[in-house]
Every structure is written in structure tokens, then in C-alpha cells.
Design goal:
Layout lengths: L7 E6 L3 H11 L4 E7 L3 H14 L5 E3 L2 H5 L6 E4 L6 H10 L3 E4 L7 H14 L3 E3 L7 H11 L6 E9 L3 H5 L8 H7 L7 H10 L8 E8 L4 H10 L4 H4 L7 E8 L4 E7 L11 E4 L2 E4 L4 E4 L9 E2 L1 H6 L3 H9 L8 H15 L7 H19 L5 E2 L32
Parallel strand pairs: 1-2, 1-4, 2-3, 4-5, 5-6, 7-10
Antiparallel strand pairs: 7-11, 8-9, 8-15, 9-10, 11-12, 12-13, 13-14
Helix pairs in contact: 1-2, 4-5, 5-15, 6-9
The structure holds nicotinamide-adenine-dinucleotide.
């Protein structure tokens, strides 16, 4: 990072575990200044200010009302790491205030709020980027590279999910002031589709030559949290008596305009190891995350898996080659740093973000549409075309090292 690079002024709104973690990553970046922080809980604001003091960076100004924060002229972009049901409202206000909006992962509660994101971004010219770190995951990007080089043939099917044992986080949400609790108590659907759907969408050219057409969702019964609370506190505890609306396993099937299918699994309230359940399958073979494996007709032994390890090495995305050479840092195996850098580069250059408002809107809409489908007995529901037909013949995305729609080898240092 050379001294000639202009410092980018950012604010962080929402200072739970995630917002505070992202802020700490930003404090390590010499070319970024965290000039304001905001949360409804005073102790979280105090905690953030303490981190900034300890980092030796200039102290940020503290807010409890994000509207006051957004009124500041010097802020160029905001990182919104609040609870799910507040993301759209704050992002819309941020764009109206002339700031780049970076939204943490989470689904929408209605498609109207997604349309409002799109219209606000179009009217104000301000980008809105869903900060989907998994789009910058090492394996996800290697698989994208493999697909772009034609190794899997024509794409037919994708699978993904959020398979993460969150029983304690959800059940203890009141004590720990965690936003997931209320959603699981009252909602039932694909609450967290984007860690999987984000990378799959980019690999399947969604919003650029392809689009998500319709979905159907099915939800199982809900037992996991009740069982966990009973085991922890006994059956007479108030927690063990709660009836959660959210089914333990929610499966969503999406049909794409190109004829491909995508399956998403939400599996967060049963005992299990973590997985994003990735699978990308085409006419020549498939990659599968769960056993770190790949099979390509003509290369792999018939009917046999190969380890993905040698393919990851041979088809490493050039962004990751460069990153490994320069030193991987930050959370979640390094992808958190990359998604922040992608956002910051766009803010600094005044360019469109590599995940734009159309990606953001359609990914977030899956949650609301899945709830609708579950409520209607798994009825198929149409997924809006937020691009209003532009997906058919989109102008190419701005070329950058962080681009997720094409791979430009010449953008990277060896
Ligand atoms: N990308 C990832 O890998 C990753 C990892 C963890 C969490 N997340 C996402 O980050 C977000 C935050 O997660 P968390 O675990 O920190 O949640 P959390 O519920 O612990 O924290 C959210 C914070 O937002 C604050 N908030 C809510 N409304 C606000 C408002 N109007 N103004 C200011 N502050 C407000 C709350 O007071 C709370 O402190 C969620 O969307 C979550 O899904 C993403």
C-alpha cells in the first residue's frame, strides 16, 4: 500500500461480533480510516471505541442513530453489519446520503425492500454491495476458474447451503442479544441463502446472461433447538418450552433461465460439522465440497472421485495466487479481507462494485420468496427480474482484480 493512495473514509453500523470483527480488519488497513461507528447498544459502541484506541488509530466518532452518522459529508462508504431486518432500510438511507452501501449477509423479509434497494441505487447512482465473503473463498474461486476453462462442460446443476450448528447461538439469543433468535422464533424459510448462492450465482452467470426464474421451498419440522434447550436446562425451562417456527432443514430448489437447477439447504439447528455443501455439475463432470473431490470424464478414473487438492493448485484463481504470495490475512481463511478490499477499491475508484445492487437484491429476495413458498405448501413462486431484462445483454462488469464475472490474468502481480 503506497502512500500515494488516497485514504478511504468508512463507517461501521452494527457492532455485534461481525461488525466489530470487520472494523478490526479495517483498522489494520493503512489506506482506510474508520471515522464513525454506530450501534443501538452503548456497551458495543464503547467496545468498538476501545478497540480503536488500542489500535493506535484516530478515534472514530460514536453514534446510536445511524441517520446522524449518514448526515456526515466526509463518509464515503458504510459497512452495515446490523441485524437482518434492518439491512435494507439502512442501505437505502446510505445511498440517499450519497454513500457506497456495503451490506453484511442476510436475507430480505419482502421483495419490496429489494426493489427499493434497486431503485435507490439506480436513482442515486450509488452502488450497493452485499459483502458476500464466500464469493472470494479459495475453493469457490478455483471452481469458477475450472468452469470458465470448460473442464466441467455445460453447467446443469448447482448445490449449496449453510450447514452450521448454531443451536447455542440461536437459543441464547436473548441473553447474548443476538439477532438470529427472533427470526428463528417467528419465520420459516431459507433464512441465510447467500454464502452458497452468492458464489454459485457468479459461476452460473446470474444477472449476466442468465437469471433466477422461480423457486420452491420445503421446510421440515423444528426439533433441534427444543432438544438442545431440554438437554441443557431441563424440559421445564422456558427455553425448552418455546415453539420455534423455523424448520430444522429447509430445502429450496431454483430454476434458472438457462435451464440449470440450484438447490440450497439451510441446516443450522441440528448437530453437524460446518459445510457450505457446494456442488457444481456439468456435462463433463462435477466438483463437490463435502469430500473435497472432483470427477471429470476422460481425466478421472471412470466412476471414481479424485481429490480436489491438485486441481486447486493447478487452477488456483489468479487473485488467490497473488494473495497467497503476498500473505493471507483476516478471518474465515482470508476471504473476509478480500471482500472488504473489493468494496474499498470500488469506493476509492468511484466504480461499480463487483457484487452490484442486482446481485444483492436477487440474493436477498430468496429469503422472502422461500418463506412465501413454505407458507403456501411449497408452491412455486416467481423470482423478480430486478435487472428489468438487462440480464439478457448486460454491459460487461468493470474490469478489476476483484471482478467476479470474468477472470483477467493481466490484473495480478506474479
Ligand atoms: N459474512 C460472514 O461470514 C458473517 C459472519 C457473521 C455474521 N454475519 C452477518 O453480519 C451481521 C451481524 O451479525 P452479528 O452476529 O454481529 O449480529 P448481532 O445481532 O450480534 O449484532 C447486530 C448488531 O446490530 C445492531 N443494530 C441493529 N439495528 C441497528 C440500528 N438500527 N442501528 C445501529 N445498530 C443496529 C444491534 O444492536 C447489534 O449490536 C448479520 O447480518 C450476520 O448474518 C456475516
Amino acid at each position: 500500500m503506497g502512500m500515494d493512495r488516497k485514504s478511504v473514509n468508512l463507517a461501521v453500523i452494527g457492532l455485534g461480533g461481525r461488525g466489530t470483527g470487520l472494523m478490526q480488519s479495517l483498522l489494520d488497513m493503512e489506506d482506510v480510516s474508520v471515522v464513525a461507528v454506530c450501534d443501538l447498544y452503548e456497551e458495543r459502541v464503547e467496545g468498538a471505541l476501545k478497540c480503536i484506541r488500542e489500535s493506535g488509530r484516530t478515534l472514530a466518532e460514536a453514534y446510536s442513530d445511524y441517520k446522524m452518522l449518514l448526515a456526515r459529508e466526509d463518509i464515503e462508504g458504510v459497512i452495515i453489519a446490523t441485524t437482518w431486518v434492518t439491512h435494507a432500510e439502512i442501505a437505502i438511507a446510505a445511498m440517499r446520503a450519497g454513500k457506497y452501501a456495503g451490506i453484511e449477509v442476510g436475507g430480505a423479509a419482502s421483495t419490496q425492500e429489494c426493489w427499493e434497494l434497486v431503485r435507490t441505487s439506480e436513482e442515486t447512482g450509488m452502488p450497493c454491495m452485499l459483502l458476500e465473503n464466500c464469493c472470494y473463498g479459495r475453493d469457490e474461486l478455483a471452481v469458477m476458474n475450472i468452469v470458465k476453462q470448460g473442464l466441467l462442460g455445460e453447467l446443469i446443476h448447482g448445490q449449496c447451503g449453510y450447514e452450521h450448528d448454531l443451536r447455542e447461538e440461536v437459543a441464547m439469543g436473548i441473553e447474548n442479544k443476538h439477532g438470529r433468535f427472533h427470526n428463528y422464533l417467528h419465520r420459516n424459510g431459507e433464512l441465510y441463502p447467500i454464502h452458497g448462492l452468492g458464489p454459485i450465482s457468479k459461476t452460473f452467470n446470474i444477472n449476466r446472461g442468465n437469471r433466477l426464474l422461480m423457486l420452491t421451498s420445503m421446510s421440515s419440522k423444528a426439533r433441534g433447538i427444543k432438544q438442545w434447550a431440554t438437554n441443557q436446562f431441563g424440559e421445564n425451562d422456558t427455553k425448552a418450552k418455546l415453539e420455534f417456527a423455523q424448520g430444522d432443514i429447509v430445502t429450496t430448489m431454483i430454476k434458472c433461465a438457462g435451464g440449470e437447477t440450484i438447490q440450497i439447504i439451510h441446516d443450522t439447528t441440528l448437530p453437524r460439522p460446518y459445510s457450505r455443501a457446494g456442488r457444481v455439475q456439468g456435462t463433463k463432470g462435477l466438483w463437490m465440497e463435502d469430500n473435497n473431490s472432483i470427477h471429470i470424464e476422460g481425466r478421472s478414473e471412470n466412476h471414481k472421485w479424485e481429490s480436489f487438492d491438485s486441481y486447486r493448485e493447478a487452477y488456483e484463481h489468479p487473485l488467490w495466487k497473488q494473495y497467497l504470495a503476498q500473505g493471507v490475512r483476516g478471518g474465515h481463511g482470508g476471504m473476509d479481507y478480500l471482500v472488504l478490499r473489493a468494496f474499498i477499491e470500488s469506493v476509492r475508484n468511484g466504480t461499480q462494485t463487483p457484487i452490484d445492487v442486482y446481485d444483492t437484491a436477487v440474493w436477498m429476495s430468496i429469503t422472502a420468496l422461500s418463506e412465501e413458498s413454505v407458507a403456501l405448501g411449497s408452491m412455486p413462486v416467481a423470482i423478480p427480474d430486478f435487472t428489468k431484462g438487462k440480464w439478457i445483454n448486460r454491459e460487461p462488469a468493470p474490469v478489476s482484480a476483484y471482478e467476479l464475472d470474468a477472470i483477467h490474468e493481466d490484473k495480478y502481480e506474479e
